[in-house]
Amino acid sequence: MASLQCVHPSSYIFTPYQQQNFMKFIFCFCFIVATVLSLDGNRILSIIIFKKLPSIIFHAFAVCLVLAFSGSFIALMIENETKIVRQICWYISVVSIAMVGSILAYSMSAPFYNWVSQVMQEGE
C-alpha cells in the first residue's frame, strides 16, 4: 500500500530555499527601514509620508515592521527540527510585510484622495 503523506499547501508555493531567501529580503528591508526611521531621532517617514494622517497609522506601520523583522529573524535562526514553528514565523513575517506595504500605499495615496475630494467640492 502506498503511504499517505500530508504535504502542507505552502510547500507548493515556495521551496525552503525560496522561503529562506524571502526571509532574508524581509529581514534586510525591515532593518533598512528601521535605520531610516531612527536617523538623528527624527521621524523622517512620519514627516514626509505620514503627515496629515492620524498617528495611529504610523504606529501600526512601526508595529507591523517590527513583527515582520522578528518573524523573519526567528524563521532564519530556528533549527530544522521545529518546522511548524518556523512555518508559523514565516506566515507572521509575510502577513506583516504585506500589512507594511498596504499601510505605506494607503499613506502615500491618502493625500491624493484628499486633494481630489477638495477639488471636487470646489467645483460644485
UniProtKB/TrEMBL annotation:
Q: Does the keyword Transmembrane apply?
A: yes
Which parts pass through the membrane? Answer: 25-50, 56-76, 88-108
Provide the alphabetized UniProt keywords: Membrane, Transmembrane, Transmembrane helix
Please identify the protein, giving its name as recorded: PGG domain-containing protein
Q: Which organism is it from?
A: Hevea brasiliensis
The top of its lineage is: Eukaryota, Viridiplantae, Streptophyta, Embryophyta, Tracheophyta
